[in-house]
Write a structure and sequence with these properties.
Blueprint: H1 2-20, E1 25-34, H2 41-51, E2 61-67, E3 69-73, E4 78-82, E5 101-103, E6 107-115
Parallel strand pairs: 1-2
Antiparallel strand pairs: 1-6, 3-4, 3-5
Helix pairs in contact: 1-2
This protein binds zinc ion.
Length: about 120
């Protein structure tokens, strides 16, 4: 399962950051997930619960921040949001397809909250 591997990497990143910070445990991890990142946000929660078991992040909460897909149309020189991430990104003004993605590909840890004891 793709999401489980990803959840394990997130837990690893959080543990490393906590150690570097001299903290014992992780309370919360923020994750920015783009609509076009190729990750099922719904599957990520349960995967994270599995991955955190037996680690210093075993009580950590995963805070997923969804990032909508936005593209740029060079012809119209305007940005537009895309709701259907499974279709093609078509400019609502001229109808041209755009491969110029401004946001929505993100898959990154945005913050880590640690517990000092
Ligand atoms: Zn256009």
């Amino acid at each position: 399962m793709h999401e489980l591997g990803l959840a394990r990497s997130i837990v690893d990143i959080a543990i490393e950051a906590a150690r570097a910070d001299g903290a014992e445990r992780i309370a919360r991890v923020g994750l920015r997930v783009g609509a076009f990142a190729g990750v099922e946000a719904d599957a990520l929660g349960p995967a994270f619960e599995l991955a955190r078991r037996g680690t210093p992040a075993s009580d950590a909460v995963l805070d997923i921040e969804p990032v909508p897909l936005r593209c740029h149309c060079a012809g119209c020189d305007r940005d537009f949001g895309v709701d259907d991430v499974h279709g093609m990104a078509l400019c609502p003004t001229c109808g041209a397809p755009s491969g110029d993605v401004l946001q929505g590909m993100e898959l990154e840890v945005s913050y880590i909250e640690v517990v000092r004891s």
